Amino acid sequence: MKAQLIGTGIVGLLLLAGVASAQGVYRWVDENGVTSYGETPPDGVDAVRTDVRFSRTDPSALQARLDDRRAVKDAVDTRKRQDREEADEAKQVNAENDKLRKENCQLARDRQRKYEQARRLYRMQEGGGREYLTDAELDSERAEANRQVNEWCSQQ
User: 52 Cβ partners below 8 Å, 6+ apart?
Assistant: First the structure.
């Protein structure tokens, strides 16, 4: 029974090969009653030529196909690795940008708070003196501080 299954499997594989060849496949039964298949039967055995046709595998064509598959797999693996690296770099850049944005937001809020609470603001002069801002300059500085807060803090 097992030999018949093996024989049937061999015939099935040969049928799947499907390409006609000049040589045929022979079937014979040995002295133990086991059915066998092959290109050439052993001497002294009644062999029957079957309708199964096959062709031998071209080793160089097979190797070329395997090499092509390997090249495609390597290219896909390389692309996946590059995509992961790019995603990791983008995450790192985004994290750095978020940190910078938070720092700048905090600085802008501090400046805004200082400008809103102060009655008088001044600029330092080169000689160490102070130049106090006019009401118009103070309003302008406060508006700039508000703009900075909106710019740095609006996306948090």
Answer: 11, 14, 15, 24, 25, 37
CB atoms within 10 A of CB 108: 20
Residues with Cβ within 8 Å of 42's Cβ and at least 6 positions away in sequence, in order, are 28, 30
Give the pLDDT confidence of 105-152 residue by residue, as tens digits.
999 999 999 988 888 888 889 988 999 988 898 889 999 999 999 999
Q: If you search the block for the tokens 């001044």, which residue do you land on?
A: 122
Q: Are 123 and 133 in contact (CB under 8 A)?
A: yes
Residues 6+ apart with CB under 8 A from 20: 53, 55
C-alpha distances out from residue 121 to 28, 117, 129, 130, 135, Å = 110, 10, 13, 9, 10
Task: Name which of 153, 148, 80 is nearest 115 in CA terms.
Answer: 148
d(CA 77, CA 6): 39
Question: CB count, 10 Å around CB of 38?
Answer: 12
Hey, which bits of the chain come out as E strands? 24-29, 35-38, 48-53, 122-124, 130-132
In whole angstroms, what is the distance from residue 50 CA to residue 25 CA? Answer: 6
